[in-house]
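C-alpha cells incoming
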C-alpha cells in the first residue's frame, strides 16, 4: 500500500505543479515540480521515504522517455546531424570526463582518486533536452541550437552510462586498461544502436503485417508500442549492450514508420501520439518531483560545513562544464551552422542548454552502497553534488534564457482568439438554421457546436438571467394565447405553465451547486414527464367522450416545438456581439429541455453524422474566407483551424 500511496503522491505533486504553472507560467515547470517534491518530503507519512532503485528507474521511467524522444525525431534530421551527434555525444563526453576528472584529482588529490573523479565527471556529463524545453517555453530558441541540443541528449546519456561503468570498474578493481576501455565503449555504444535497430525493425514488420490484414488494430498495436521500450531495454541490458541507446535506436526506427503511415492509420497514430504525450509528461514530471523529494533526504545526511563545501564544488563543476561547452561550440568543433554575427550567442546558448536532469539523477543513485564489501563512503556526497549541479543548471538556465532570447509572441491575444471562435461557430449555427429539414438532428448538432463557444467564456449572470426571464415570460404569454384559442385545454395550459415557471437550470457556471441544481431539475422533470403520460391519456379520453377531433388540439410535442421556435426568434432579435455567449447558453438550455421531453423522436444517425461534417466544413470555410478578407491573421487562422480539427476528430470518434 505504501508503494501505491507513493505513486499517488507523486502524480498528485505533478498535477499540482502543472496547475500552478498554468496560473503563473513565468517560472519554468521543472522548478515547480522540484519545489512540489520538496514539499512532499515534509509530509508526515512513511510513503515519502522513497528509495531509488536505479535499474528499475532506468527501465520503467528513463527508457520510455528516451524511446519517445527517439520516435519523435525525424530520421532526416538525425542523418543530417551525424557529425554533431558524434562530436557532442562521443567526443565532447570523453573530453569533458577526462578534463573534469583530471581537474578534480589535481585539485583534491586526497579526496578524489582518478577513478572516483571520473565517476563524478561521467555522472554530470549527460544533458536533458526536456528540461531545456521547460526552461524555454516562453522564449524563442534558434532552430539550429535547439536541434543540436535535442540530438545530443538522445545519445550522450549512453556515453555517460558507459563511462561511469568503466570508472566504477576501475575504482573497484584498482586497475584500468585503455584497450579494454575502448573495446567496451565501442561494444556497448554501437552494439546498443544495432540491437535496438534490429528489434525495432522486427516490431515494425509485425505491425505492418497486422495492419495489412486488419483495419482496426489499435487495441493491439498501441499496447505493443507502449511496452516496446521496457522490453528492448531489458533485453539489451541482458546482452550487455546499452539499453538506453537500444531504445533510442528503436524509437528512431519507429519514427521512420510514422513518416510512412501519416494517413493510412490516422486513428492509431492520433491515439498513440496522445498516449505517449500523457505518459512522457507524467514521467518527466515524476523525475523532477523525485529530485525535490530526495534532496532533503540527502542533505539530512550531510553536515552543514560539508554542505557548504559541496555547494561550492557543484558551482565549480557547473562553471567548468559551461566553459567547455562554450569552447566546443565557439571553436566550431561542433558545427551549429551559425552566421558570423551569431556565433558567440549560439555558443552561449549551447553551453547554457547543457541542462542536467533525469539521467544524471539516475546515474548518481545507481552507485553501489558497498564496494569490495565495504561501505562506499563517497556515495552520499556524489549524489548531493549531482543534485546540486542539476539545480544550478536549471536555475541558471531559467534566469539566462529570458535575458538572451526574445519572448514568444503571438499576433493575437486569448480574447481575440475566443472572439474569432465565437464568430466562427455562430456562422456555422446560422447556416444550419437556414435548413428547415432534419429539425431534431440539427438541434443536437447546434447544441454540440455551442459548447465550442461557451467553454472559454465566463457567463455574465445578470445578462443571462435578464434574457432568460424575458424568454420565460414570452412562453407564458404563448401558452395563455393557445389556451384562449382553444388549441390546448385549460388543464394542459396549467401544466405547461408549471413547467415554464421552473427556471432553466443554471448552465453558465460548472460549479458543484450547479451540478446539484441540474440533478434536482432532472429528477423533477422525470416526475413531470411521468405525470404527463397520465394527463395525455385523460386528454385523449376527453376527446373521445366529447367526440372532438384530435387535430383540434396541439400535441404535446408540437407545443414544445412552438415554444422553442418562438423563443429562438425572440433571441435572434435581441442577440448582439456583447451577449452572444449568454444567449447561446439559453439556447442550449432550451434545446436540452426540448430533447428531454421529446426524446421519443427518432434520430437519423447517418444524417446527423453528415450534418456534423457539414458544420465543421462551414467553420473551416468561414476561417478561410476571413483570412482572404484580411479580418484574420495567418497565425490566428491556423490556431482556429487546429481547434476546429481537434473538435471534429473528437466528435467523429464519439459517434462511432
Amino acid at each position: 500500500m505504501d508503494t501505491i500511496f507513493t505513486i499517488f503522491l507523486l502524480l498528485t505533486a505533478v498535477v499540482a505543479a502543472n496547475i500552478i504553472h498554468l496560473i503563473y507560467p513565468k517560472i519554468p515547470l521543472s522548478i515547480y515540480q522540484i519545489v512540489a517534491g520538496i514539499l512532499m518530503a515534509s509530509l508526515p507519512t512513511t510513503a515519502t521515504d522513497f528509495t531509488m532503485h536505479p535499474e528499475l528507474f532506468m527501465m520503467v521511467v528513463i527508457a520510455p522517455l528516451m524511446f519517445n524522444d527517439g520516435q519523435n525525431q525525424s530520421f532526416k534530421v538525425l542523418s543530417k546531424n551525424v557529425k554533431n551527434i558524434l562530436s557532442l555525444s562521443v567526443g565532447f563526453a570523453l573530453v569533458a570526463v577526462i578534463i573534469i576528472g583530471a581537474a578534480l584529482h589535481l585539485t583534491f588529490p586526497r579526496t578524489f582518486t582518478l577513478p572516483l573523479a571520473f565517476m563524478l565527471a561521467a555522472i554530470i556529463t549527460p544533458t536533458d533536452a526536456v528540461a531545456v524545453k521547460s526552461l524555454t517555453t516562453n522564449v524563442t530558441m534558434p532552430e539550429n541550437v535547439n536541434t543540436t541540443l535535442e540530438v545530443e541528449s538522445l545519445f550522450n546519456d549512453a556515453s555517460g552510462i558507459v563511462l561511469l561503468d568503466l570508472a566504477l570498474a576501475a575504482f573497484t578493481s584498482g586497475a584500468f586498461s585503455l584497450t579494454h576501455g575502448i573495446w567496451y565503449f565501442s561494444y556497448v555504444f554501437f552494439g546498443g544502436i544495432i540491437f535496438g535497430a534490429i528489434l525495432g525493425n522486427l516490431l515494425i514488420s509485425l505491425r505492418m503485417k497486422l495492419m495489412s490484414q486488419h483495419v482496426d488494430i489499435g487495441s493491439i498495436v498501441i499496447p505493443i508500442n507502449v511496452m516496446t521500450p521496457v522490453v528492448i531495454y531489458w533485453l539489451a541490458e541482458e546482452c550487455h549492450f546499452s539499453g538506453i541507446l537500444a531504445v533510442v535506436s528503436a524509437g528512431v526506427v519507429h519514427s521512420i514508420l510514422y513518416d510512412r503511415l501519416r494517413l493510412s492509420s490516422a486513428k492509431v497514430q492520433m491515439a498513440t501520439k496522445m498516449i505517449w504525450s500523457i505518459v512522457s509528461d507524467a514521467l518527466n514530471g515524476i523525475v523532477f518531483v523525485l529530485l525535490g523529494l530526495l534532496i532533503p533526504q540527502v542533505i539530512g545526511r550531510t553536515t552543514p560545513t560539508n554542505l557548504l563545501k559541496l555547494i561550492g564544488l557543484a558551482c565549480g563543476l557547473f562553471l567548468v562544464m559551461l566553459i567547455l561547452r562554450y569552447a566546443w561550440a565557439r571553436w566550431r568543433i561542433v558545427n551549429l551552422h551559425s552566421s558570423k554575427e551569431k556565433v558567440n550567442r549560439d555558443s552561449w546558448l549551447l553551453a547554457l542548454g547543457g541542462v542536467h536532469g533525469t539521467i544524471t539523477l539516475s546515474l548518481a543513485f545507481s552507485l553501489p552502497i558497498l564496494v569490495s564489501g565495504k561501505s562506499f563512503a563517497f556515495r552520499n556526497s556524489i549524489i548531493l553534488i549531482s543534485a546540486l549541479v542539476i539545480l544550478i543548471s536549471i536555475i541558471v538556465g531559467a534566469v539566462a534564457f529570458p535575458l538572451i532570447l526574445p519572448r514568444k509572441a503571438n499576433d493575437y491575444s486569448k480574447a481575440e482568439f475566443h472572439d474569432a471562435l465565437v464568430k466562427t461557430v455562430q456562422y456555422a449555427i446560422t447556416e444550419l438554421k437556414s435548413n428547415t429539414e432534419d429539425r431534431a438532428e440539427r438541434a443536437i448538432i447546434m447544441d454540440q457546436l455551442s459548447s465550442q463557444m461557451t467553454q472559454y467564456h465566463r457567463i455574465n449572470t445578470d445578462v443571462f438571467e435578464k434574457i432568460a426571464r424575458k424568454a420565460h415570460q414570452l412562453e407564458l404569454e404563448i401558452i395563455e394565447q393557445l389556451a384562449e384559442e382553444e388549441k390546448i385545454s385549460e388543464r394542459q395550459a396549467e401544466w405547461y405553465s408549471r413547467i415554464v415557471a421552473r427556471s432553466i437550470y443554471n448552465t453558465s457556471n460548472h460549479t458543484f451547486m450547479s451540478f446539484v441544481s441540474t440533478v434536482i431539475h432532472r429528477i423533477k422533470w422525470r416526475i413531470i414527464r411521468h405525470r404527463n403520460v397520465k394527463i395525455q391519456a385523460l386528454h385523449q379520453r376527453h376527446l373521445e367522450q366529447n367526440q372532438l377531433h384530435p387535430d383540434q388540439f396541439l400535441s404535446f410535442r408540437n407545443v414544445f416545438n412552438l415554444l422553442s421556435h418562438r423563443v429562438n426568434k425572440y433571441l435572434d432579435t435581441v442577440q448582439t456581439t456583447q451577449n452572444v455567449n449568454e444567449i447561446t447558453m439559453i439556447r442550449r438550455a432550451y434545446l436540452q429541455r426540448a430533447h428531454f421531453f421529446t426524446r421519443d423522436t427518432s434520430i437519423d444517425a447517418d444524417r446527423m453524422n453528415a450534418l456534423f461534417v457539414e458544420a465543421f466544413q462551414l467553420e473551416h470555410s468561414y476561417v478561410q474566407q476571413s483570412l482572404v478578407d484580411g479580418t484574420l491573421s495567418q497565425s490566428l487562422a491556423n490556431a482556429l483551424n487546429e481547434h476546429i480539427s481537434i473538435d471534429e476528430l473528437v466528435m467523429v470518434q464519439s459517434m462511432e
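note: The chain has 25 helices and two strands.
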